[in-house]
UniProtKB/TrEMBL annotation:
It holds the Pfam family Ribosomal_L1. One of its GO terms (cellular component) is cytosolic large ribosomal subunit. One of its GO terms (molecular function) is structural constituent of ribosome. It comes from Actibacterium mucosum KCTC 23349. Belongs to the universal ribosomal protein uL1 family. The keyword tRNA-binding applies. PROSITE patterns: RIBOSOMAL_L1. PANTHER family: 54S RIBOSOMAL PROTEIN L1, MITOCHONDRIAL, LARGE RIBOSOMAL SUBUNIT PROTEIN UL1M. This is Large ribosomal subunit protein uL1. Binds directly to 23S rRNA. The L1 stalk is quite mobile in the ribosome, and is involved in E site tRNA release. One of its GO terms (biological process) is translation. It comes from the Bacteria.
Amino acid sequence: MANVGKRTAAARDAIGEKANVTVEEAVALVKGNAKAKFDETIEIAMNLGVDTRHADQMVRGTVNLPNGTGKSVRVAVFARGAKAEEAQAAGADIVGAEDLMETVQGGTIEFDRCIATPDMMPIVGRLGKILGPRNLMPNPKVGTVTMDVTDAVKNAKGGEVQFRAEKAGVVHAGVGKASFDEAKLVENVRAFVDAVQKAKPTGAKGAYMKKVSLSSTMGPGISISVDSATGN
């Protein structure tokens, strides 16, 4: 851990006073400082001028990153009969109903995304205290409660990212891997920022997008100019 700290400090020194740079510059700096032995995730964090305690200031949604996330996503689907078969054919990793509910209640959660058909929500609803804190609860607003399980599964597997503002008004997500080409990371960053911008709630007052930063799993954060991030 000491070596990791030294590398992070060295990376910060290398960045120096560079702050509020363009998206392109931030991507180049983050990639250049991703020195871990594994393929680090490139992460974006956005501080928004919202108070999530108010329903009309909640920010949430999904975005299909043009170049994917580089991450293998395990998908679980709550469905029965023909819809269960459809989910399996679409590539879902786990499909079930009451049996899947019992598995989750037992503490086994071997999936990164959870999808459900509307008729399964009385069952899924019992798992709210387990799935909710993990941001895994199916929700029609982000397309994870749907009869079109084929599209939902394919989107989840193909680079769809969900986002939701936390209590402090922060939205964060992985937007690719350090091994991605710079141009592809830039495209992903801009697509994510655009989606968050379009999700601006009606109750938001004042500056909506306050700060945008980019980092790798083990690297320091780099502040991006809000104008550059939003294309202004």
